[in-house]
Specification:
Order of helices and strands: HHEEHHHHHH
Helix content: over 70%
Shape: globular
Number of helices: 8
Oligomer: single chain
C-alpha cells in the first residue's frame, strides 16, 4: 500500500520536479576557503530533496537523490569516473534518510529541528569516513595526496593525514552545509508543502470535472 501511494502519479511528478531542481542546484557551488580547500564546494542541492522527504517520506528522499544524480550527469558529465557522484548520493542519503525517518514519527516543528540536526551530524560522520577511506585515496590519482593534505594544513595546522583532513576540514564543511540546508528548508517547507498538496487537489478536481 505504501509503495502504491509513493508511486502515485502525483508523487512521481513531485519527486521528478524536486530531483531535477536539486540537480540544477548541484551545478552551483560556493567554496568555503576558511574551512576546506577550494576543491570542496558548498551547494544547496539537498534543500529540495529534504523538503520532498518531509512531505513524502524517507524512501522518496532516496529516490530523489538518485534522480538528482542521473539528471546532473545529463547536464554535466562526470569528471571523477562516477566516484564523486556516487559519494554525493551516499552523503545526501545519509542526511535525508535519518531526517526523514525521525520526522515521519514526530511531525512537529521540534521534530523537524531534531530531524535536521541528526541528519546533519550523520552526514558529517559519513562524510569523514567516506572521504578518509574512499574520496581522498581516489583523488590522489589526480592530485598528489601530499598536495591535498598541504592544502588542508594551510587552513588548519592540525591536518597531517587523511583522517585529520577529513575530521578538521570535511567534517566542519558538512556541518556548515547541513546547517545551511536545514535553515533554508525550515524557511520554505511550509509554503512548498502546501504547493505539493495542491498538486494532488488540482489533479483530483480535474478528474472529477472530466468525469462529469
Amino acid at each position: 500500500m505504501r509503495e502504491k501511494r509513493l508511486l502515485s502519479t502525483k508523487n512521481v511528478a513531485v519527486m521528478g520536479m524536486l530531483g531535477a531542481l536539486s540537480a540544477v542546484l548541484m551545478l552551483f557551488e560556493v567554496p568555503l576557503p576558511f574551512i576546506a580547500p577550494s576543491f570542496y564546494g558548498l551547494d544547496l542541492s539537498e534543500v529540495p530533496i529534504l523538503v520532498g522527504t518531509f512531505a513524502l517520506g524517507p524512501v522518496a528522499g532516496v529516490v530523489m537523490e538518485a534522480v538528482k544524480i542521473l539528471i546532473k550527469l545529463l547536464l554535466k558529465p562526470t569528471s571523477t569516473g562516477f566516484v564523486g557522484e556516487f559519494a554525493n548520493f551516499v552523503f545526501g542519503c545519509s542526511m535525508v534518510l535519518p531526517a526523514g525517518l525521525i520526522y515521519r514519527f514526530h511531525k512537529t516543528k521540534k521534530g523537524a529541528m531534531i530531524a535536521m540536526a541528526v541528519g546533519t551530524l550523520v552526514m558529517s560522520g559519513v562524510g569523514i569516513v567516506g572521504n578518509a577511506l574512499v574520496m581522498l585515496p581516489f583523488y590522489s590519482n589526480f592530485m598528489p595526496l601530499e598536495n591535498i593534505l598541504a592544502a588542508g594544513a594551510a587552513i588548519n595546522p592540525a591536518v597531517s593525514n587523511v583522517w585529520t583532513f577529513a575530521a578538521f576540514c570535511v567534517g566542519p564543511f558538512n556541518i556548515i552545509k547541513g546547517i545551511a540546508v536545514s535553515v533554508i528548508t525550515a524557511l520554505v517547507y511550509k509554503r512548498v508543502s502546501v504547493m505539493i498538496r495542491s498538486i494532488g487537489t488540482e489533479r483530483q478536481g480535474g478528474k472529477r470535472r472530466a468525469e462529469a
